[in-house]
């Protein structure tokens, strides 16, 4: 998809942003702590992290609803925040759209009036102009026939389109989302997520999207920024974040993982290392180049990367385990397996059952074993 050779335009440039809040007792917390990234034209960036890690504060700072205590923000090449130079451009002059929880559509207004609202509040468009723009943007999001409906008379998908139309109507190519799907029930949410991703790719606006739901992040993002205590701890494509988690925190936040403690025996020039653990010695892939022989580390691997067999495999990187329990989950079955005192999880297509109490071999190849710092 990304076959464009020319470098893409930077829509938002965030540099060293700090935002502090005073707690009730008087102590100060860094809600956003030295964050920086570039958002490219047409890019969908997801801010992912647990409750309280600073996602909303960072988004509100980009929107101009919070004033940062340090750092700079540029939008479309224009300086919007610089605490050092006293620059702070108000939200309504940042040319961006916002979509919050459950879309926040006005229930007493028709679709037309909801979408026309940002244009009317700018006070620079006449009636004809507003009607043209609203019609155009509703056609863009695929609901030109719904102008006279009220939000309460529409499906979740239609409401999402109205919210998107309202965010885009004033001509911005940047939309900020704060957990818009969090009040929608699980089944509808998956459908809406799919539609949103499709519309974003088709219409081409750039997006910053906040969520604490990892599967939502995986499904929507071109890039995910994982946050912890006000900091971005890793930023990369969903695949990079999942397959090459840089820390235990990221590996555990994005998906399920198994862990074994160990000590590095030797490091190879190809970025692999041999690690001794209580269940044997394994070759894994280093998450950081500076991990050295003698270091205490953690081996992390995904439940789907363990390959079970009844026969002893010819390969190395294997251990012997007992199947303790099986949990049928439809498409796959989750097994709890035990090796001495250690327990791990293993996922397998349900068609290929393992029986409980069976003694099995499990092989995990070196590329799927990540060596992380404890
Ligand atoms: N107006 C405020 N005054 C004081 N502290 C605040 C304020 N807003 C946020 N905080 C604090 O800043 C930190 C980050 O909050 P924020 O709302 O950005 O988290 P979040 O990642 O969006 O969490 P959630 O997933 O629960 O929405 C929290 O410790 C919060 O208590
Ligand atoms: Mg929040």
Write structural notes for this entry:
This protein is an alpha+beta fold and 374 residues long. It has two domains: 10-249, P-loop containing nucleotide triphosphate hydrolases (Rossmann fold, 3-Layer(aba) Sandwich), CATH 3.40.50.300; 256-372, Beta Barrel (OB fold (Dihydrolipoamide Acetyltransferase, E2P)). It has eight helices and 21 strands. It has helices at residues 55-63, 111-122, 127-140, 156-168, 186-203, 214-220, 238-243, 248-253; strands at 10-22, 28-40, 44-48, 70-75, 78-82, 87-88, 97-99, 174-178, 206-211, 223-228, 231-236, 258-267, 272-277, 280-286, 296-301, 307-309, 318-328, 332-339, 342-349, 359-363, 370-372. A hairpin with a 4-residue loop joins strand 5 (78-82) and strand 6. Helix 2 (111-122) packs across helix 3 and helix 2 (111-122) runs parallel beside helix 4. The radius of gyration is 25 Å and the shape is globular. The chain starts with 9 loop residues before the first strand and ends with a strand. Bound molecules: adenosine-5'-triphosphate and magnesium ion (MG).
Summarize the structure.
By secondary structure, the chain is of the alpha+beta class. The protein has eight helices and 21 strands.
Produce the secondary structure layout:
Blueprint: E1 10-22, E2 28-40, E3 44-48, H1 55-63, E4 70-75, E5 78-82, E6 87-88, E7 97-99, H2 111-122, H3 127-140, H4 156-168, E8 174-178, H5 186-203, E9 206-211, H6 214-220, E10 223-228, E11 231-236, H7 238-243, H8 248-253, E12 258-267, E13 272-277, E14 280-286, E15 296-301, E16 307-309, E17 318-328, E18 332-339, E19 342-349, E20 359-363, E21 370-372
Parallel strand pairs: 3-9, 3-10, 7-8, 8-9, 14-21
Antiparallel strand pairs: 1-2, 1-4, 4-5, 5-6, 10-11, 12-13, 12-15, 13-14, 15-21, 16-20, 17-18, 17-20, 18-19
Helix pairs in contact: 2-3, 2-4, 3-4, 4-5
Bound molecules: adenosine-5'-triphosphate and magnesium ion.
């Amino acid at each position: 998809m990304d076959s464009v050779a020319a470098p893409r335009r930077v829509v938002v440039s965030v540099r060293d942003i700090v935002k502090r809040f005073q707690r009730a007792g008087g102590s100060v917390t860094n809600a956003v702590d030295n964050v920086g990234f570039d958002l490219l034209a047409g890019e969908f960036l997801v801010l992912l992290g647990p409750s309280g890690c600073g996602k909303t504060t960072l988004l509100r700072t980009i929107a101009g609803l919070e004033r940062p205590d340090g750092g700079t923000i540029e939008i479309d090449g224009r300086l919007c925040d610089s605490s050092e130079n006293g620059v702070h451009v108000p939200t309504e002059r940042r040319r961006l759209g916002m979509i919050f929880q459950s879309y926040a559509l006005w229930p007493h207004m028709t679709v037309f009036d909801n979408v026309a609202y940002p244009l009317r509040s700018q006070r620079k468009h006449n009636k004809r102009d507003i009607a043209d723009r609203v019609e155009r943007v509703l056609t863009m999001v695929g609901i030109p026939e719904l102008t006279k409906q009220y939000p309460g008379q529409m499906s979740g998908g239609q409401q999402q389109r109205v919210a998107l139309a309202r965010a885009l109507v004033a001509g911005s190519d940047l939309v900020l989302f704060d957990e818009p799907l969090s009040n929608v029930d699980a089944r509808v949410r998956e459908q809406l997520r799919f539609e949103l991703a499709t519309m974003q790719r088709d219409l081409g606006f750039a997006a910053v999207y906040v969520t604490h739901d990892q599967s939502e992040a995986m499904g929507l993002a071109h890039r995910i920024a994982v946050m912890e205590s006000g900091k971005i701890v890793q930023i990369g494509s969903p695949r990079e974040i999942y397959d090459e988690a840089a820390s235990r925190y990221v590996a555990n936040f994005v998906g399920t993982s198994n862990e074994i403690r160990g000590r590095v025996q030797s490091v190879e020039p190809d970025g692999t290392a041999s690690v001794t653990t209580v269940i044997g010695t394994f070759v894994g892939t280093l998450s950081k180049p500076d991990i050295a022989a003698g270091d205490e580390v953690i081996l992390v691997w995904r439940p789907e990367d363990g390959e079970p067999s009844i026969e002893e495999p010819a390969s190395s990187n294997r251990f012997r385990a007992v199947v303790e329990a099986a949990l049928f989950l439809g498409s796959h079955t989750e097994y709890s397996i035990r090796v001495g005192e250690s327990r791990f999880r293993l996922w397998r297509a349900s068609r290929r059952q393992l029986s409980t109490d069976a003694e099995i071999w499990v092989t995990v190849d070196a590329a799927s074993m990540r060596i992380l710092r404890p």
